Amino acid sequence: VQLAESGGGLVQPGGSLKLSCAASGFTFSGYIMRWYRQAPGKERQFIASITSSGGGTNYGNSVKGRFTISRDNGKNTIYLQMNTLRPEDTGVYYCNTWMGGTNYWGKGTLVTVSS
């Protein structure tokens, strides 16, 4: 299982950014996928999840109404569209899936929201 995040960078408050996570090594279309965030000095926090078909999504309270998770099963990729970004959205964003009793993580992509 390999997960590779991309799309992070520096953005001003109020701006937008779109993250991607390319998956390989497993049957991508069969699994729930998730995004997490880890801010400096804090624990990893749930951001969003999406069902295997893409028909169902769930969000953490801090990002509801601002972030949108989506997936393209033909490209084995999930996305996180982040709008109205705030300084508190700063952190490393990780892609995640769980299978066979094991959590799998990518290496993360850094998002910095600052003026």
In short:
The protein is built from no helices and eleven strands. It is mainly β and 115 residues long.
Task: Throw out a few tags for this protein.
mainly beta
Number of strands: 11
- Number of alpha- plus pi-helical segments: 0
The overall pLDDT, averaged over residues, is 97
Structural class by helix and strand composition: mainly beta
**Tertiary shape:** globular
**Helical amount among residues, as a percent range?**
under 10%
Question: What is the helix/strand order?
Answer: EEEEEEEEEEE
Proportion of beta-strand residues: over 45%
Taking Cα atoms only, what radius of gyration do you get, to the nearest Å?
A: 13 Å
Unreliable parts: none
Taking the alpha carbons of the first and last residues, their distance comes to: 37 Å
User: What does the largest sheet look like?
Assistant: 7 strands, mixed
Description:
The protein has strands at 2-6, 9-11, 17-24, 33-38, 44-50, 57-59, 67-72, 77-82, 91-99, 102-105, 109-113. The chain is 0% helix and 54% strand. By secondary structure, the chain is an all-beta fold. The chain contains no helices and 11 strands. The model has no long low-confidence stretch (mean pLDDT 97). It is globular and about 40 Å long.
